[in-house]
């Protein structure tokens, strides 16, 4: 299976290393022989139809902040040129999410689908802004589109709802889908001010480069769009979400919640309306997880409420979700 990797940041590099370290096991267990034939970042690209050497790629990235010096041959192909010219079966999109126009990820995904490639995206932007039309494009081009890392990182939230609960009718769900705000709110519940909790989260490297994505609930809203489409069969995009972030939460709100044995959490919910907003959650509710953890409770018609909890971010965790999608694509595409 030939792969083009868009973006070579923490997730892209973790995925490349994971493929290398698991190559024998992937072949033995799944008959999967993946090779990365092209990688590009914002400064350049590297290609080798017989498969790129992962350690050399990582060295080049470390030394020159780009994969472009992977080899002596000049490699100035843009991402779109690579997607249009290089033969591959799967495109993996790991560039940064943006919720203004979803570029450059949107163009990568659209071009790859038109070229007949299956697509795995951990970039939430294109899904948040155009989920219904991307699904149609994938169907039209008869390619598979997978994105399990966009919600819950390595925690298989989408798989759980889609596959483990198959046959069920999920009637509603509530989730903590943003680890950074959960970390900040957890620290505030322990007595820290909002500003100190934010600085601490920044110091630990949790906060997105554009802090608004976390603090104003955009990241959680994007994940809610993906869940609503994929799990609930809705056709919605970002503007359909009612969104309030955590900037206005102060120590009084935290105190009032504590008096009722509750904690303030940023909750993404689907129940008649799609809402991201801070809410008081009972301390003994399974949803009430602390630190950077994510949690989501699905309420189904027959089997009641079930909660899945796990780490919602991180390079290697998200890389594991890409591998999951790759195995799924391999299984689905070899079905006769
Ligand atoms: N900023 C996100 C979070 C990263 O804090 O959960 C994972 O999408």
Structural description of this entry:
L-homoserine binds at residue 208. Its EC number is 1.1.1.3. It holds the Pfam family Homoserine_dh. The chain has 336 residues and is an alpha/beta fold. Helix content is 41%, strand content 21%. The strands form two sheets. The protein has a six-stranded mixed beta sheet, with helices on both faces. L-homoserine binds next to α8.
Quick tags:
Rossmann fold; 41% helix; 6-stranded mixed beta sheet; 12 strands; 13 helices; 336 residues; Dihydrodipicolinate Reductase, domain 2; alpha/beta
Q: What's the assembly state of these chains? A: single chain
CATH homologous superfamily label of the largest domain: NAD(P)-binding Rossmann-like Domain
Mean pLDDT score: 96
Strand order of the largest sheet: 3-2-1-4-5-6
Distinct compounds present: L-homoserine
End-to-end Cα distance: 18 Å
Rg for CA atoms: 20 Å
Provide the CATH top-level class of the largest domain. Alpha Beta
Number of E strands: 12
Shape: globular
Largest sheet: 6 strands, mixed
Unreliable stretches (pLDDT < 50, length at least 5) are none
- Looking at CATH, which topology of the largest domain would you report? Rossmann fold
Binding site for NADP(+): 7-12
Domain Aspartate/homoserine dehydrogenase NAD-binding: 7-143
Active site: 223 (proton donor)
Domain Homoserine dehydrogenase catalytic: 156-327
